[in-house]
Amino acid sequence: MKLTHIRTFQLSALFFLFPTVVYADPLPSWNEGNNKEKIISFVESVSTFGSDEYVPENKRIAVFDNDGTLWGEQPLYFQIIFAMNRASQMPPEMLETDAQRAAAQGDSEGMLKGGQESLQEVFDLTHSGQTVGAFSEAVSDWLENSRHPETNLRYDDMIYQPMLELLSYLRDNEFETYIVSAGGLHFMRTFASKAYGIDPQNVIGSTTNTEVSDENGDLVISKTPGIGWYNDGNSKIIAIDRHIGQRPIIAGGNSDGDVPMMIWTTQGDGPRLGIMIHHTDSEREASYDRDSAIGGLDQGLKEAADREWALVDMANDWRVIYPSSDSQ
Question: What separation in angstroms does the CA of 100 have from each of 120, 187, 227?
Fold first, then answer.
């Protein structure tokens, strides 16, 4: 008898003996409502042996965006704030472009004036010319010593408590959880395990160019200028196919850049669930969607309605936002 069958039999026996047993709420930071019910019902149906919608453990895969889905992203993506902080520590002679000089001065508007090309100039300055190990140490040091300008919290404390509970709930039900984000691969790997319980090999993100060099007999990986892979939009689908090798059954995001991944996931055969986070809480976090340059959500609102995804209203669906916050 398989372990899954034994577990199901044991639970059934317990229910027969103790029919009034009350199970702990797996999502205590979620308010009661349609979205919480939809998520719990889905997880129970696909993980209960004998259910019409039962999915074997090796196919229980859930993928989530990071920025705006698992942690905050306002007023700028946190990795951009990290890059600006790094630029401010550079000697003036290393600041060769207007974008780099603006970043060093904390002028985000001036830095982003030239669009993606200007941002890449800043990332080339702050993310390349170092080993992956040295870069990870710089990220860890920044997380330890920096605070968000509006909340005064550590950036890795601005993770969403309801999503932490969801990740844990999924893993308790034998799901494999992944991050699939436009954020930097090496940037996210630095904190993903501690913050989310997601191991480095389950982090899929954008990458700079890299190279391998021999340093006194030791082979090391170094980050070099230029973008190797930008993991957004349709590229997320390609990355999932390359890295995971099968279609997930749950996908979560918060912006239009996540929509292709969520459509592709929920178009598959069998039970599927899309979870779109809608930032509606201006008091406890931020309220934005269609007109936001950061985490813009327009197409995703329509798709969520048409495809019956769980459109999570942060103001109404979440009892708390961050792990350290109070109930209200």
Answer: 10, 20, 17
